[in-house]
Amino acid sequence: MTTVVIADDHDMVRHGFRMVLSAQPDLTIAGEASNGNAAWDLVRRLHPAVLLADIRMPGIDGLELVRRTATSGLTTKVIVVTTFNDDEYITRALRDGASGFLLKTSAPGLLVEAVRAALVGNALISPEVTVRLLARLGAGREPLQPDPPLTPRERDVAKLVARGLSNDEIGAKLHVSPGTIKTHVTHISTKLGNVTRVRIAAWAWESGLVSRF
């Protein structure tokens, strides 16, 4: 069972995260904290697999939790979940070892996928954050060209990936199974050069497939 600690100073946010994650049979909430100091105590005492941390909290903030956890020798992965879509926060969090950066406006399924990605050493970032960073770093760069071109259904899936939906949520919208969506995502990735899910989202925005949130 994968253990998760939730750190956020808003009760309703913690409740929402707990409801989403507790619905997964392999995830369990080991503890909750309403401030950074309590979160750090829980991490050191419980050694959870994943810590979900807001940026602005009383006491130690989320960015300091990322730094402390990464330098402590603990195996806990920290995912920042915040309302602050700020380049400085994003850059610092990822530089200091965050295993994901999600906006609280992201679809619930993306939270589950971020936890699972962190467990295998990947970092999932909200699509809108990724696209803005890539646009800043690669201004003027031509978007990737899928080879061969995407099918109409693959384009539909790519659009929904770009909006931050999970495979389950995309499947529900398109009335197919999550396994079918996973296959579509794999085909899209292959056609774009074996890229990550986040890069698929970025491509959808860069290429104009998705125009706005």
UniProtKB/TrEMBL annotation:
PROSITE patterns linked to this entry: HTH_LUXR_1, HTH_LUXR_2, RESPONSE_REGULATORY
Modified residue annotations for 4-aspartylphosphate: 54
InterPro entries in the record: CheY-like_superfamily, NreC/VraR/RcsB-like_REC, Sig_transdc_resp-reg_C-effctor, Sig_transdc_resp-reg_receiver, Tscrpt_reg_LuxR_C, WalR-like
SMART domains: HTH_LUXR, REC
Source organism (scientific name): Micromonospora trifolii
Domain of life: Bacteria
Keywords, ordered alphabetically: DNA-binding, Phosphoprotein, Transcription, Transcription regulation
UniProt-listed Pfam families: GerE (PF00196), Response_reg (PF00072)
Protein name, entry field: Response regulator transcription factor
Domain HTH luxR-type: 143-208
All copies of domain Response regulatory, residue ranges: 3-119
